[in-house]
Write a structure and sequence with these properties.
The chain has 372 residues and is α/β, with parallel strands linked by helices. 40% of the residues lie in helices and 13% in strands. The strands form 5 sheets. Strands 1-9-8-5 form a 4-stranded mixed β-sheet. The structure holds pyridoxal-5'-phosphate. The site of pyridoxal-5'-phosphate has 15 residues, from α4 and α5.
Length: 372
């Protein structure tokens, strides 16, 4: 059985009528850049996250940058984050003029190690950016305690965690602000690029709205130097429709993660990174750790099952970030994760039969004797 890594056409086939309705509304209104569709989606998304403000922007990368800007982060500051993430987390920090300071992750779920965070805080630390990696919330209660003790703002990278919740709080609503991505493959995906910043601070929301639109207060009245990173009306209208399905989709992802757990839990040399853990996980990706990743990837490909790697190289070891001068071996847990992680197909449209086919294929390749 062939199983694609992601099946966006299948997802949009189900939603075709709703999406056409959204297109028609936007075409009739002419509100293409910002406008009432964006306003409406912002309200709906803020409500979904249980936070007072959401501001629609052009991408998740912009959202993180603006969240940091609103927290007052700038040149001379240090921002603590993890190297086991997508590079955008670090790009956003650098874009403010601040310096990223990495701390290692936990072996159990590859999110920020709170002890490492506590010992990395110094006089120049201006903010903390934990990443809710693969759809699982970072260790927020410990991270928030440390942040509060030092009076530091936390900006969540929630690009993979729309709807993940713990003790009545949802991703995006834990502290000062959060950046969300609506890149097509995310749990809530647009039909192109889009993102949102959530924040509990009204003044910051206003400032972010200004910066995303050329720093404009009123037409041709520019209060500060801004940028153009507005959300498209068409993306907002699409996202409003898709948001209605998000909770059910996340629930379905949890069911699929449960099937995977049943198929895979007794396999030697295989660890589930994205283990079901109730509502704190929205299973953006299904990630396992295996020592013999290359052989496994090749074996799965042979059987028509597409897998991925998130992420093969931690950010501090990427060529572009060599200038930070962080040598290999600095973050042994993250570096080991990057060598062993492998992502299996995971999306709400995946059937039980497909999930089991992935599990069986994996079992076959793992247990087959290695030929020399
Ligand atoms: C997708 C992603 C981003 C960036 O979002 P874009 O919308 O692609 O700019 C940032 N951080 C993480 C962890 C992501 O997965």
């Amino acid at each position: 059985m062939k199983v694609p890594f992601l099946d966006l056409p299948a997802r949009h086939r189900k939603l075709r009528n709703e999406l056409r309705e959204a297109f028609d509304e936007v075409l009739e209104s002419g509100e293409f850049a910002g406008g009432s569709f964006v306003d409406r989606f912002e309200q709906e998304f803020a409500e979904f996250c249980g936070v007072s403000h959401a501001v629609g922007v052009a991408s998740g990368t912009d959202a993180l940058w603006l969240g940091l800007m609103a927290a007052g982060v700038g040149p001379g500051d240090e921002v603590i984050t993890v190297p086991m993430t997508f590079v955008a987390t670090v790009e956003a920090i650098l874009r403010t003029g601040a310096t990223p300071k990495f701390v290692d992750v936990l072996d159990s779920d590859c999110t920020m190690d709170p002890d490492a965070l506590a010992s990395a805080i110094g006089p120049r630390t201006a903010a903390i950016v934990p990443v809710h990696l693969f759809g699982r919330l970072a260790q927020m209660s410990e991270i928030l305690q440390i942040a509060e003790r030092h009076g530091l703002p936390v900006i969540e990278d929630a690009a993979q965690a729309h709807g993940a919740e713990d003790s009545g709080r949802r991703a995006g609503g834990f502290h000062f602000a959060a950046g969300f991505s609506f890149y097509p493959g995310k749990n809530l995906g647009a039909l192109g690029d889009a993102g949102a910043v959530t924040t509990r601070d009204a003044e910051s929301a206003e400032r972010i709205r200004r910066i995303r639109n050329h720093g404009q207060r009123r037409k041709y009245e520019h209060a500060e130097v801004g940028w153009n990173c507005r959300m498209d009306g068409i993306q907002a209208a699409v996202l409003s429709r898709k948001l209605r399905h998000l909770e059910r989709d996340n629930q379905r992802r949890r069911v699929i993660a449960g099937w995977y757990e049943t198929c895979l839990s007794d396999l030697p040399d295989l660890r589930l990174v994205t283990q079901p853990c109730g509502s704190a996980h929205v299973h953006h990706l299904q990630v396992i750790r295996v020592p013999e990743r290359e052989r496994l990837l090749a074996g799965m490909k042979e059987q028509g099952i597409e897998c991925g790697i998130h992420y093969p190289v931690p950010v501090h070891l990427q060529e572009a970030y060599a200038f930070l001068g962080v040598p290999a071996g600095s973050f042994p847990v993250a570096e080991q994760c990057a060598r062993e992680v492998m992502s299996l197909p995971m999306y709400p449209e995946l059937s039980r039969a497909q999930t089991e086919a992935v599990g069986e294929a994996l079992r076959g390749v793992l247990l087959e004797p290695v030929s020399h």
